[in-house]
Amino acid sequence: MKDGFIKTAAGVPEIALGDCSANAERIISMARDMSDKGVKLAVFTELGITGYTLEDLFLQQTLLNAAENALVRIIKETAQLDMLIAVGVPVPVGCSLYNCAAFINKGKLLGLVPKTHIPTYSEFYEGRRFSASPEKGFFIEYAGQRVYLGQGFFRCAELPELIVGAEICEDAWVPSPPSVGLAQAGANVICNLSCSNELIGKSEYRRSIIKGLSGSLVCAYVYCSAGDGESTTDLVFSGHCMICENASMLARQRWNTGSFVSADIDIQRINADRRRMSTFTAVPSEKYPFIAEFSLAVTETALERRFSPTPFVPSDKANLEERCREIIHIQSAGLQRRLKGAHADHAVIGLSGGLDSTLACLVTADAFKSLGLPPENIIALTMPCFGTTSRTKSNAQKMAEAIGTSFKEVDIHAAVQQHFSDIGHDGVTTDVTYENSQARMRTLILMNTANKCGGLVVGTGDLSELALGWATYNGDHMSMYGVNAGVPKTLVRYLVGYFASVSDEPLQSVLYDVLDTPVSPELLPPEENGDIAQRTEDIVGPYELHDFFMYYMMRCGFAPHKIYRIALPTFEEKYSPAIIKKWLVNFVRRFFTQQFKRSCLPDGPKVGSVAISPRGDWRMPSDALYAEWLRDAESV
């Protein structure tokens, strides 16, 4: 439970139809196996103590008595387990019979949550036997305890932000599921005890419903449906289990009765997402009240959850081309609208032969093609100076020729040397003035060239550079529209790789060589053999680590120690713990101290869920202190 991780499980014991004692034994056995694996929340199937397909046998008192006795046994024999357990049981109350989820914790029956929507159509005929959940809950004596029966939620004593609610099977398929009210009342984990039969295409539809609910409700959703042992007189059941978190599928299984599937849900991340949404309110209501508190030991979850080392890069390889085109279209559409709004038919871009300017040039060409403007109206400027290598300069020229843009070389050696003389710099000391003078001179030339042709300067800087402040203030930091402002470095590389894969020669060869070139601002003189001497990732750290840090800090609100925790298994084959900590501390320091550069960024399109525009997603004082974050990072 440390850092908000809760290991959850959905379990499908084989049903002994009508044999409550055998079902109780199987539930207890599986619960113990789950506990051994560190599971804290266990969800079993709808009416799992009896079996779902018993038809009119549910009207037999013998069965109902056996079900109650079986629940008593489950409560007693799981009392030593550090778990919250949800099992399905039929509960008679007066002249009514309710299909309930019984919540159990350390020898206590916390509450009984009845099914709200009773299906009586097609293959379902529950209305013949079961009553819908009462509008208002009440207390009953059941399984030897006084317990609340009705809708509502359960809260963890040790981790109050963990709030659990339940709905049962059909409840999820209706226009207004109970989970909506539960989420609005504060529940961030929804359990669904189900017995949904299989039909052609139904499993995919079921999956879309559960993923959709977890997304629209910003919650974790644990779905558990019955499998083997249910009657196959007319239907077949697959034991479909799913664990979702905010529209992401964490774990699932079908056709695997006798087993369980588990996943680590992240309560902190769910709550952070909800806090970010000003439209999401969580207030307990009369219809969905607080029922009871449960207890779980606060221990460190042994994580089985895996995190992508490149969270910004599309993971759906099947739709690779479509996703790439969508990202590029967003960038291109933003630039098109800005060109039309400015009544500009020319664009000016500093083409260095590096990754960022390459992507910006490709996107600009796409925008011009969509607007019906000739590619030669794109003026690509290469401005060699002290650090420029023949490799990057050559690639810039080849790329411009392959795309069809105008190309111009403006050597800035003399201009920068004159500037050094003007400000009293010796022109030899390779300090920050030496570097930044080159970047600002290039921006001056770009801006004035754009004025001359009535065009716009297209910015090339990416999201990762802006997060780290790896840009010269009023140098490459500045443009008239920054097409890469919402694209992190790992995604820039991915998109250029996509362009290379769909391009013809000679552009393809140029793009592959750009991808193979070390990332560098090329502001320091090259090595004696002509190679790049200034490698960005040697100075600020690997971009794949920084993009990982940035995503989980900005998108999820994670503390540095939690980011470090999930980075360890993610990058264990590539970086040591000491290296990960080193660059995490560096990221925290740079992220805070460089905010002043982000406070006055040019316009640029938001591409993904993380953006850094001071007018949109990220508003932060430039003089905020970062001692708390730094202490947290250094404590790992």
Question: Would you mind describing this structure in some detail?
Answer:
It is a single chain. This protein is α/β, with parallel strands linked by helices. The protein folds into two domains: 7-294, Nitrilase/N-carbamoyl-D-aminoacid amidohydrolase (4-Layer Sandwich); 317-634, HUPs (Rossmann fold, 3-Layer(aba) Sandwich), CATH 3.40.50. Helices cover 38% and strands 18% of the residues. The chain contains 19 helices and 20 strands. The protein has helices at 20-36, 61-77, 178-184, 202-216, 267-276, 320-341, 355-371, 390-403, 413-423, 432-453, 463-468, 489-502, 507-515, 536-539, 543-555, 560-571, 577-593, 595-598, 627-634, and strands at 5-12, 41-43, 84-93, 96-105, 108-114, 138-142, 145-149, 153-156, 163-168, 189-194, 220-225, 241-245, 248-253, 259-266, 290-294, 347-350, 378-382, 406-409, 456-459, 481-482. An eight-stranded mixed β-sheet has the order 6-7-5-4-3-2-1-14. Helix 12 (489-502) packs antiparallel against helix 13. The protein is elongated, with a radius of gyration of 30 Å.
List the helices and strands and how they pair.
Elements (H helix, E strand, L loop, with lengths): L4 E8 L7 H17 L4 E3 L17 H17 L6 E10 L2 E10 L2 E7 L23 E5 L2 E5 L3 E4 L6 E6 L9 H7 L4 E6 L7 H15 L3 E6 L15 E5 L2 E6 L5 E8 H10 L13 E5 L25 H22 L5 E4 L4 H17 L6 E5 L7 H14 L2 E4 L3 H11 L8 H22 L2 E4 L3 H6 L12 E2 L6 H14 L4 H9 L20 H4 L3 H13 L4 H12 L5 H17 L1 H4 L28 H8 L2
Parallel strand pairs: 1-2, 2-3, 5-7, 8-15, 9-10, 10-11, 16-17, 16-19, 17-18, 19-20
Antiparallel strand pairs: 1-14, 3-4, 4-5, 6-7, 8-9, 11-12, 12-13
